[in-house]
Amino acid sequence: MTEVNNALSPHGGTLVDRVMEPAKGRVKAKEAKIRLPIDAPRATEIISIAYGFFSPIEGFMGSKDVDSVCKDMRLQSGYIWSIPIVFDISEDTIKEKGIKGGDTLLLTYQDQPFAVLELDEIFSYDKTLMAEKVYGTTEDKHPGVKRTYAYKDKFLGGKVTLINPPKINPPFDKYWYPPKVLRQKMAELGWKKVVAHQTRNVPHTGHEWLMKGAWFASNADAVLVSCVVGEKRTGDYIDEAIVLTHEALGETGYFKEGTHLTSILLWDMRYAGPREAIFHAIVRKNLGCTHHMFGRDHAGVGTYYSPYAAHEIFDQVPDLGIGSVLTLEWWYCPVCGEVTYSGLCGHDKQRQGFSGTVIRSIIQDGVKPPRLIFRPEVFDLVMESGEKYGFGSPFVTEDYLAKRNPVISVPPMEV
């Protein structure tokens, strides 16, 4: 585990705040001569930029920052950054809209004014090079590489300002803590050391012990569960089940009162393995966490990265400013009759791993997994969430993707 002294400082030293009150936003919107609709990924990235989750970034990266991040894992300013945050656009749209450097663009989402982009630069970048540097492969079977190859011909670089803050819809609203708000809450609770747990899964007891082990290792006051809410694939757990079940671990006493908090991060996973581990650490540093836990295969996919690649990369970034808690594996030992950690018992041949695939298949059959593998309160809530939010299933289906209640809604704004 690495320790730091300045972990509570935001990345870059200052927490970015580019959120404008709607009354002032309407005035700002009138300055923009060009309207440009955006999709959900761009909208959620703008939210994360504006509220400071991505500090010190203030907008979509220009060519120099993109090149520096891809090749050297640093911004032009010198601060560590591992994944390009870019705004892609087709040449046809640029010509159709008459977009040029120096323009102020009004970005619309859900048919409403949403943000403005002060355009500094229109540029191209080698997408194959981006894929190879960020993901370590050029195979389009990798979801991050596939996303990169799907980028359009050009990129827009410039600062963004959120002029029409969205409403976070239930049940996610109670877990929405922008960095400034979360830091204030931590101070009110008296938390001086907080370890972050990144997740996109309903928790089994392996996850629970991963959190508890990191909590002990970092001598933290609390665990912040940071649930990634973003693009989903069929077969994933639905977002509602993830956040509700993580909260249940604290509410039902598996964590002592006042030591566990569930939150959300609006982010579409890149599955960039070690590079994404660095990104996750930076975001949670901005949230005010002093430590971040990293287990086996963090943010990985398939066999593109070694099991502990996310551990090894932290040797390259000693100046990141947040402590890394690097953990091995937790499993259930039937001989000991308990959950145990790598190296703590001698029954390796009898050990039973926490296979997410097996647990999901059990849940799909409507069977409650053993208590030592899956807390009964969590199982009950998974099934309830499937009925209430997932159209009968706790797993993402095409029906869910088509009909789910949106995570955010943009209020009407007259310009």
3D structure, described in words:
By secondary structure, the chain is an alpha/beta fold. Helices cover 33% and strands 19% of the residues. The chain has 14 helices and 15 strands. It has helices at 22-31, 40-50, 63-72, 91-97, 127-135, 143-149, 179-189, 205-218, 239-251, 274-287, 309-312, 356-364, 376-389, 398-403, and strands at 34-37, 59-60, 87-89, 104-109, 112-123, 154-162, 167-168, 194-199, 222-229, 260-266, 291-294, 323-326, 330-333, 338-341, 408-409. Strands 1, 2, 3, 4, 5 and 6 form a six-stranded mixed sheet that branches. Strands 10-9-8-11-12 form a five-stranded parallel sheet, with helices on both faces. Strands 7-15 form a two-stranded antiparallel sheet. The longest helix has 14 residues, at 205-218. 44% of the residues are buried.
Separate helix tally: 14
Number of structural units classed as domains:
2
End-to-end Cα distance:
52 Å
CATH architecture of the largest domain: 3-Layer(aba) Sandwich
CATH topology of the largest domain: Rossmann fold
Give the low-confidence spans.
Answer: 1-7
Report the portion of residues in β strands. Answer: 15-25%
- What are the secondary-structure elements, in order, as H or E? HEHEHEHEEHHEEHEHEHEHEHEEEHHHE
Rough outline = globular
Helix content: 25-40%
Mean pLDDT: 92
The CATH superfamily name of the largest domain is HUPs
Structural class: alpha/beta
Main β-sheet description: 6 strands, mixed
Radius of gyration: 22 Å
CATH class of the largest domain: Alpha Beta
What is the number of strand segments?
15
